[in-house]
Structure formats: C-alpha cells, structure tokens
C-alpha cells in the first residue's frame, strides 16, 4: 500500500490530562490513523465498574474500535508490550507469555489491528540478561503465539490466505535499551527469530539518537556523527528486506542548550539521559524552528526512496507539553502532525512514483546543497559552528 500518515494516541495528549474521544476527534479532523497507546486503553477501562480488569480492558478495546470506526480512523497497532525479552526470572517470563496470549492478543483482535509493538527492554542488568539465544527464543515464542492466535480465531479471518490473519510483532530498538539499542541489533534479532510475523519497526529518533546524537555532549552531536550516520544508512540498504518492516515512526528532537547531565531540568538519576531527552523533547519532522536537528531527512530518504518502503508512517512524539491540562493540546499536536506529514509528502514525492519520486528528492537535495548546508546532514554544519562559540 502507499505510505499513509498515523500518530500515536499519547502524542495527542497524555491520558491523565486528555480524554480519548477528544484526541480521536483531533486525529480524525486531520485524517490521521492511530497507534493505540495501551495507557489510553487502561485509562478508559478504569472508568468502568471494577476498574481496569482484563475483562474491562477488553470492553474498552471494543469501545475504542467503535469510536474509531465512527470517525473513520484505522488503528494500525497496539503498543507497547514492554520489558519482555531476556527476563532472568523465568516464572515472570511465563506470566508475560500468558499476558500476551490471554490479554494483549485479544485486545488487538478487539481493536481490529494485527500489529503489536514490542520495544527492546530497558530493565536493569539484574532483571534482564543479554544472552542472544534467550532473547531470540523469547521473541520467537511471541511470534508463534501470533500464528496460533490466527489459526484459533475465526473473527475477520474467513477467506484469508496463509499468514494473513497472524498477529504481527513490530520489534523496535530503543536507543537506551539495556542490550538491544541499535537497529542493527534489532534487525539481527528479527532475522534469527525467523518468523514472517516478527518484523522490525524503524524509529528515526531511536536510530539517530544512538548513532548521531548524544544529549550529554555540548551541541548534542557525537564525534564523527556524520560518518557514522552515512555508514549505518549504507548498511540499511545492504541488509534490510523492506518486506520485513512493519511500519516506521518518524520524529525529530530538540537540541538542548546545555548537556543533559546532573543539574539539567530533565536529568533523572534513575534513567538514561537519552530516555529523559526522549520523554521531554521529541518533535515532528520539519520542526527546525522548534530546535529539531536530527538527520531525519537522510533516514527517510534511505527508507522511503532508496529502500522503497510503503506503509504506515507514524509520528510518535513524546513531549513535556503533552501532559499539560490544556484543552488545546490534542488539536495543536494533530495540526503539527499533519503539517509534518505534508512536508514528508512534498520532500519525498510520495504522491508520485518510481523515477519521478527519486527526481523530486534529488532536486530537493540539490537545493539544500545550493543553500550552503550539508546535504544529507544539515544539522551538522550549524552544530559545528555553535561548538566554536
């Protein structure tokens, strides 16, 4: 399918400050599909008698599906199933497997989505191990549950071919993950799990946040960042099968005026700096006027043009303003998401195809070079200049 825009439900306002119907209205008014953040489902279930029990969560999922259907919103995924792979406590592992089988897969079915997003664990070393064999076996177990769920369910599956009703697991490397923190590591895991319904999710923030950026450094950019980024993008083209990409998340981030170390307003002793940065400072693609500086253009060119990805392109923004009790937040963030999507369409010629799309991108790249900025990494030149101040 051609690329389509989506947004995570939490990126329209956090559940403790903004009602889901209000956020859905904002998404619908800008033609955005939805990644459903489990937090929103739990908050809705908590309003039912008895609180957020599994049965009430299932009822909430059915309600959300109806609310979305009434607004012509597609739910593209349920996320995030966190802190699963590599658990040292194997009894806890078995409990999480039961949670997936008995709760999360039924929730996905009730929502009308086939995709469950699984981020890499960032539990401490004492809780999750880095043995690749264990991680692969754990995640393969999830994938096999997704196939078993398809074979045991008749809902919406009549007439579908082999694999078409499977639950798809989208595995994403968080740039502060304990053992899996790069796209290369997550892609290697995807290959070793070796199940068609276990796929990779590329997140531009997490990719650039590991390879290119470091919020603890002045200027926010790692040494030799441009060379490292060029190399990692080449490896994407050399190694990744575009058919194994579930969807992509496109976000940028704010350059901090001072390093995110002890004394910074976003510093938390109990969490990695990249996580604190992510939770407070993500921005939409194209928001350089708000301080965005990651090489998202280069990543998108690789994924959308060079690799030829087609599918959902979702804005997963975390930001300090999303929890504010300000009723303008859902509409403001939906508007920004739509503007960002329109810029992506323009920058990468998504309404065109083949050679015509490539020509649009090459023309844009030439314009960037003529403007005196670094072609694929326009943030680098400005950062270098600031570092001299």
TrEMBL record:
This is Xylose isomerase-like protein. Gene3D superfamilies: Divalent-metal-dependent TIM barrel enzymes. PANTHER family: HYDROXYPYRUVATE ISOMERASE (PTHR12110), XYLOSE ISOMERASE-LIKE TIM BARREL DOMAIN-CONTAINING PROTEIN (PTHR12110:SF21). The keyword Isomerase applies. Pfam families: AP_endonuc_2 (PF01261). Keywords: Isomerase. GO terms for molecular function: isomerase activity. The keyword Disulfide bond does not apply. Residues 61-330 form the Xylose isomerase-like TIM barrel domain.
């Amino acid at each position: 399918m051609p690329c389509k825009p989506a947004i995570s439900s939490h990126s329209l306002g956090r559940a403790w400050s903004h009602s889901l119907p209000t956020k859905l209205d904002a998404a619908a008014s800008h033609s955005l599909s939805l990644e459903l953040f489990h937090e929103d489902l739990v908050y809705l279930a908590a309003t039912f008698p008895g609180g957020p029990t599994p049965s009430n969560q299932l009822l909430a999922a059915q309600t959300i599906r109806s609310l979305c259907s009434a607004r012509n919103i597609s739910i593209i995924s349920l996320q995030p199933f966190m802190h699963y792979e590599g658990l040292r406590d194997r009894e806890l592992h078995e409990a999480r497997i039961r949670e997936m089988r008995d709760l999360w897969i039924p929730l996905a079915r009730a929502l009308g989505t086939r995709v469950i997003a699984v981020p890499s664990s960032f539990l401490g070393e004492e809780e999750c191990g880095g043995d690749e064999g264990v991680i692969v076996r754990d995640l393969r177990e999830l994938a096999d549950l997704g196939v078993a769920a398809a074979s045991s369910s008749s809902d919406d599956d009549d007439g579908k071919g082999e694999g078409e009703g499977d639950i798809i697991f989208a595995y994403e490397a968080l740039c502060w993950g304990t053992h899996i923190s790069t796209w290369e590591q997550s892609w290697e895991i995807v290959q070793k799990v070796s199940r068609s319904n276990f796929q990779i999710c590329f997140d531009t923030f997490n990719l650039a946040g590991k390879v290119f950026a470091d919020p603890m450094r002045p200027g926010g950019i790692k040494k030799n960042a441009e060379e490292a980024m060029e190399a990692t993008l080449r490896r994407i083209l050399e190694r990744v099968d575009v058919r194994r990409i579930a969807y992509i998340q496109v976000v940028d981030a704010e350059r901090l005026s001072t390093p995110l170390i002890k004394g910074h307003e976003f510093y938390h002793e109990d969490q990695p700096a990249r996580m604190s940065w992510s939770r407070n400072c993500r921005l939409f693609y194209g928001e350089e006027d708000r301080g965005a500086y990651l090489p998202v253009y280069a990543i998108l060119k690789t994924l959308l043009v060079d690799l030829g990805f087609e599918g959902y392109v979702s804005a997963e923004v975390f930001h300090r303003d999303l929890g504010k009790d300000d009723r303008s937040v859902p509409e403001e963030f939906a508007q920004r998401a739509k503007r960002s999507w329109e810029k992506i369409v323009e920058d990468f010629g998504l309404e065109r195809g083949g050679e015509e799309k490539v020509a649009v991108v090459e023309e844009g790249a030439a314009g960037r070079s003529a403007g005196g900025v670094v072609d694929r990494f326009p943030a680098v030149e400005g950062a270098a200049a600031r570092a001299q101040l």
